[in-house]
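A quick aside before the break. I want you to see a complete sequence-to-structure record at least once, exactly as it would be stored in a machine-readable document. Don't worry about memorizing anything.
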Amino acid sequence: MATETQNGSSGASLEEPLHIESEAHLEDVVDDHNVVLVDFFATWCGPCQMLEPVLETLAAETDAVIAKVDVDEHQQLAGAYGVRGVPTLALFADGEQVEQQTGALPEDHLRDLIERHTE
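That is the input. The structure line, written in tokens, reads:
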């Protein structure tokens, strides 16, 4: 499968958000990294756009991988995770989903969620 992106290596944190290309890609990212925060977003969504710089900061400054799923491109994947509104943020730790929240959450709240699962 040649769809692995330049950020797709296992183990280490990524410095910028990783765009998910398929359900299998998301599963691989969750399996390969200890903590993954998945942003289910839409390009037309105002709160999603406001959240973008926060997610970029978290990708650069935390041990979590920030993954982005465009719900318009991946409707079945969003449906599989019960996404009813955007943005929806799902946090995975050690391969298991541990949190899911809808709405543009503040950076300190997201950082606390990540840090609770990286220690």
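Two observations worth writing down. Residues 1-12 have pLDDT under 50 and may be disordered. The helical segments are 23-32, 46-61, 75-80, 107-118. We'll return to this after the break.
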